Amino acid sequence: DAKTTQPNSMESNEEEPVHLPCNHSTISGTDYIHWYRQLPSQGPEYVIHGLTSNVNNRMASLAIAEDRKSSTLILHRATLRDAAVYYCILRDSSGTYKYIFGTGTRLKVLA
Amino acid sequence: NAGVTQTPKFQVLKTGQSMTLQCAQDMNHEYMSWYRQDPGMGLRLIHYSVGAGITDQGEVPNGYNVSRSTTEDFPLRLLSAAPSQTSVYFCASTPVGHGANVLTFGAGSRLTVL
Prior knowledge:
The structure holds two protein chains of two kinds. Chain A contains no helices and nine strands. By secondary structure, chain A is an all-beta fold. In chain A, the strands form two sheets. Chain A has a five-stranded mixed beta sheet, with no helix packed on it. A four-stranded antiparallel beta sheet of chain A has the order 2-7-6-5, with no helix packed on it. Chain A starts with 8 loop residues before the first strand and ends with a strand. Helices cover 0% and strands 48% of the residues of chain B. The chains are: A mainly beta, B mainly beta.
């Protein structure tokens, strides 16, 4: 199973951009990169996904390295409501459909 | 659409008791899965299914049984609960096939085993 590596925690000031890194050096050619976040006392929710190109949606941007061995989730202006655990996972394209979550990055947003 | 619905939201069991956590989805998703999340930890995959009649083990399957008789439902059974199974359980689903197949999660079921 392809694994991802993320920092355990990060801090950001409110209204400033946040860059959350993820390493996935064993990614396969057709694996999608997914990001989810988990707000306190809630289930995880989808944030963004990508395959090769950078992606933008209303919640965030995803920057994918050219060799696809790393990616960065970008929150353009962090708010207190963005304080959560952010998970980067790989959508296993080998057919086994195992979505393996690591421990994620706990983002703390300072007012 | 209700999405992914988990019941019960809270449950307290005594060691050795059995129970079933229910998960239902109304999105016609072929893939369904169960995760557990211990305090301060990430999610660990218990079992998953890519369609009715098909189930497979995840990272931590011991002590849990599953079956998938319909597309909509994927119950998780604890045959003899142990304190080590105290956790929050999340069910998730997604379509199967080409594409990103992002997961939709339920709100969780908090289980305490005394």
